[in-house]
Amino acid sequence: MEIWKSRWGLIFxxxxxxxxxxxxxxxxxxxxxxxxxxFMIAYLVxxxxxxxxxxxxxxxxxxxxxLGTIGVFxxxxxxxxxxxxxxxxxxxxxxxxxxxxxxxxxxxxxxxAVTGGLHADTDTSALWADFITSPAQIVFFQFVAxxxxxxxxxKGIRKGIEIVNKILIPMLFVLLFVxxxxxxxxxxxxxxxxxxxxxxxEYLGSAETWVRAxxxxxxxxxxxxxxxxxxxxxxxxKEDTSLNAFITGLGDAAAALIAGIAVICTVFAxxxxxxxxxxxxxxxxxxxxxxxxxxxxxxxxxGIFIAIIFFLAMxxxxxxxxxxxxxxxxxxxxxxxxxxxxxxxxxxxVTFLLGLPxxxxxxxxxxxxxxNQDHVWGTALIISGLFVAFAVWxxxxxxxxxxLINTGYNDIRIGAWWDFxxxxxFPLQFIVxxxxxxxxxxxxxxxxxxxxxxxxxxxTIAIQWVAVILALIMLNNWIGKKxxx
Amino acid sequence: MKQVFALIIIIxxxxxxxxxxxxxxxxxxxxxVIEQQSxxxxxxxxxxxxxxxxxxAPDIVSLFSIGTTYEGREIWVVKISxxxxxxxxxxxxxxxxxxxxxxxxxxxxxxxxxxxxVVEKYYENSKEGNRVRYVVNNREMYIVPMVNxxxxxxxxxxxxxxxxxxxxxxxxYPNCYGVDLNRNYDYMWNIIxxxxxxxxxxSNTYQGESAFCExxxxxxxxxxxxxxxxxxxxxxxxxxxxxxxxxxTPRPPEDEALFIDIANGISAINGYEVMQAxxxxxxxxxxxxxxxxxxxxxxYTIELGSSEDGHNPPMDRVLNMSETHVYVNLYAAEIADNPxxxxxxxxxxxxxxxxxxxxxxxxxxxxxAVMIVAIFGITYGGLFKCFRIAIKSEGKKHGDxxx
Lengths: 485, 403
Prior knowledge:
Structural class of chain B: alpha/beta
CATH topology of chain A: Amino acid/polyamine transporter I
Number of helices of chain A: 22
Largest sheet of chain A: none
Largest sheet of chain B: 8 strands, mixed
Oligomer: heterodimer
Order of helices and strands of chain A: HHHHHHHHHHHHHHHHHHHHHH
Number of helices of chain B: 12
Radius of gyration of chain B: 27 Å
Largest interface: A-B, 64 and 60 residues
């Protein structure tokens, strides 16, 4: 089996997997909308009480068992639980179906910016509307996104994933810093800093702030996707699993902060008024990036270069995350005896074909099917996180810590706090998040939440989750049977 | 364990089988008067009359369609200005719309009357003629008497296209027609929490499957997008109100002072009460919120007539409203060159969310600095510490790691 060429290769790869579009366009908006500094506090709390402890467990499991997510659950938790690993894999695969579509949008906007399609007179709303309603363009760029990602994974760990991340992640940080410094240099940027960082304390009293912070942290760090399990399979046997988890989590937060400054300060500095800036931040993710930022960048001389940098950074972030989604699936197929090349070919064709509905089904200017998939599967990784915790519980939490984490190869010792997090905080956080999420999906649609065709209602989540889990439980033995150690 | 799973499965799969609640009329608190009056304009009457005006006064009137409805009617726009076939960018644009709701009859009657009035007075040597000539020669007025001609034809609030279920199959809901066009605009669409039944396709205030999913609102959107409107009046019935944004939130608009200023000017003419739209009830996807929020237009909704008048008052009442609102329309056009002097930014009203955040006080700077240092300290401080440990340990086990 291939092994990472260097520790830094592994670190950059896991950081690349963690840092994605969620950091660049979702974090700034979430922080701004949920109390600025208050949200940041909640976000950091969950970084240490959910994401990093989960990454530690995942790294340790992958390194110990040396199999993808299905194999890890089959070997470590028991034959009956192979379906949990399959769930983890499926969630990340389903997310990559539509993630590739969004990555396609980003590539498209990058090419538009480079070819001079964005200037002060561009009607960016019309640009977006034209693009999102032309399936041929969307599918073309989705195809490009899938193709690039597949090519990297096809080349393998050392020649593909490791090299790409080693180059792109440092560049990503440089690009984000350039965009942030440019934004800070604009007159009026100070209002953005104030809005982003001054805590509005009353938000800490609202459940919504906390739940959103947890969802943001888990999604952003890729904790629960099985990424850490998969990348740990290729670890040198003397590799560390604890410090690397901290680096992944903190690196992810570091990128999010810089992106937050770049985005929020640009919005405040270049909007016509504070009121307009606040209005822009209240709108959806897609219009923030593709309509408003695209427009605002062009308001300043030199802004077009920042637009290019911004969309390039987004494309890099998307690619490095997309790669990890592929590798999670590929690893599982390889555990079943397939070759890497066969697995990559298969999964990339599936990703392209099953991503088509997300690309094509658009109502008005809104990609409704994609939104539905994001709504249903974006939060499913919280369940994956609980499955990992379950595997740990089954083994015995302190035993797990003694045997799998503090192995002597680690650069830092993980203390008993980790046991507390896994035993007490994990189930607590899980229950609160799920209850809030279901409450939200019901109360937002009082007349239609039970209608499975309501794209963000309760029924659509329940049916899709239950159908997948059921199918996996039924197929459990078949899923686990062919795992080749 | 298996039983628990089975139970969960049964519950989850049976949820969709619960029958939907019976469609509720959100406007039920209004006393509806549904008596057809023969003297109102039909769509065909209006079309003929507008064509006639364009034919008789081609030097100041041009008539064009901005879109076709589901049932194939044109959405007519009357442009009244000197040189009506050229866009004169130095003349401020003013927008008048009626019949977003097809059953609100006075809302289009006042606008048809206004067109006839302007055409007649423009050539008249009188005080009123002078006033009309000034406006026509120095403004570009765009009048859309019937945004929703299908609804007018059917005497229905909503338009007439069947509603479809979302999803790939796109099947129609049984016996379910129409979207409330004044809930379908793409500004804060579908955000009322808790939502009214605007999400219910059977409701009279159904917001549509997505913002701007309707031909009529798309037509208005594209039309507004290609002009630079300063002020707009959207006519409805009834309640004798002058409403200004926002409708989606109780938070006052940034330009509240200016809105109230101009609304008081209108109120001085028609005697209606001025209030923020959300004070009446919360709406989302309303035309005025979009016009103001997305296009920076000073957008007003005018609710014509009293509750006694209802949606189709007797014709003498309609005439009375039409005569009064000629002056409202002229006033709106007159102030369009410099409304309220300047766009007023009321600092203290920017947002409840950001209260005090933007003040330049030492405490706010200090708070910001403390938070930036703390948050960057934890993330970047932690990250660099981790890097140091990693580099150190790398040096130690360098020999084995390479193997």
